[in-house]
Amino acid sequence: MGFGSFFHSSISREAFHLLFLNPPYLSVINESGGRSRHEKRFLIESLPALAYGGLLIYVIPYYRLTPDICRILVDNFDDLTVWRFTESEFRKFKQVAVLGVRKPRGTELQDTLCLEELASAPMSIRSLAEMPEERYALPDHPIEVNTFKGGRFNQ
C-alpha cells in the first residue's frame, strides 16, 4: 500500500485494466499562478496508468463535462457512455459516471459536442440503474505492476 498524494506517487505505465476516478472537485492554484481544475488534472495524470483496452470510470458532476474535459475523453477513449447517478444520489451530488475504453490517441480530431450537450440537459442522461450488467468487459490477461508507491511509503 502506498501513502501520500496521487500526484507524488510512482505507478508503472499501463498498470491497470480498470481506473476508477472520483477526483476532488476543486479549483486550485497551479505552479504558474493560474487556476486549474483537479478533475481535469486527475484525468490527465492518471491516463498513463490505464492499459490500452482498459476501462475508465470517471465520476464527476455533470456540469464538469466541459469542452476541455470532453476533448481529453474523446481523444483517448472509445465506446464512451455517460450515466447519471440514481435519483436521490443525483439530486444530492449532481454526479455522472463517464465510462470508456482506452485507445491510442488518434491523429483525427473527434467531435466532442455529443458529450458537451449532456451538461446542458442532465435529465436526458440515462440512469446507472439502466446500464446493462455486461455493458463493458475487462481484458482477461494479467498485468505485472512493477512500480506502485506513494510519495511516502509506510513511514
UniProtKB/TrEMBL annotation:
PROSITE patterns: N6_MTASE. One of its GO terms (molecular function) is methyltransferase activity. One of its GO terms (biological process) is methylation. Residues 1-140 form the DUF6094 domain. Transmembrane segments: none annotated. This is DUF6094 domain-containing protein. It comes from human gut metagenome.
